[in-house]
Amino acid sequence: MFMRLALLVVVSILLGCQTSPKTLIRLSPDGPEGVGLKNAEIEGQREYIYYSAPTSERISSGIWEGDPYEEGPDTEGASEFMYIINGSATIVDEHGREEALHAGDAILVPRGVTYYWKQSKLRMFWVIFDEGEPEDWADRTAANSYIRFEPHGPEGKLNGEGGTRKHMYYAARGEKLSAGVWEADASMSDQFHEPDYTELMCILQGSVTIIDDAGNEELVQAGDVVLVPKGMRYQWKQGEYMRKYWVILDAD
Fold first, then answer.
1. Predicted confidence pLDDT, tens digits, the chain (252 residues)
2. Cβ neighbours of residue 238 under 8 Å, at least 6 residues apart?
3. Where in the chain are the domains?
4. CATH classification of 164-249 is 2.60.120.10, yes or no?
5. CATH 1.10.340.30 corresponds to the domain 2-149
6. N or C terminus: which one in the chain shows less Cβ crowding within 10 Å?
């Protein structure tokens, strides 16, 4: 939403968000314990920014809550993924396509898409990424409209070989930046991963234990939203089937 995006840099400084952590970040729907959500400069909006990229404070992720309002038309210079926690909203693109959003729904508005927004009191997880010129369509894969995510993919199934399957709903910068839904069968490995990107994961089903290189273990399960920051070394211990939405941002 335009008003919120315009204030991200100011708000991230005021809220003291993490800019380059190397540990797993859990996004709580209520903000960090003892901190909560902070009032934004726009009346009726509250937010906590959990992550802001070292290279651009606009590339970020967090929790946002707003009282009822409507706005538009807006055309953004960055793409935004939204995962609704509670409340409802209606989004309409410039061609008249309209959809209602409720708790549990996920949607991505690519940069360059013009849309109108109307909401009740609403709270959501969000990721802002793929910053660029709104009219620059050549380096990403998306129709000229918003993208609604389905937990099993657009046709009710995901594609892939072996124990891993996915559907990529959005890609940019030669797929260095992407978003979609992913599922995998159980997978246990002692291999350490050290990604050159940051990834937000919204766990839809199943669980995994993530172990950092200091031996700290975090059980991540259905309903959790976590962020693995760029450069974090970790092991992935998945003892059962798991499915998640993903967003890859802040890639080298």
1. 544 554 444 444 344 455 456 899 999 999 999 999 999 889 999 999 999 998 888 999 999 999 999 999 998 889 999 999 999 999 999 999 999 999 999 999 998 899 999 999 999 999 999 987 656 655 666 667 999 999 999 989 899 988 999 999 999 888 899 999 999 999 998 999 999 999 999 999 999 999 999 999 999 999 999 999 999 999 999 999 999 999 999 998
2. 184, 186, 187, 188, 206, 207, 208, 209
3. 2-149, 164-249
4. yes
5. no
6. C
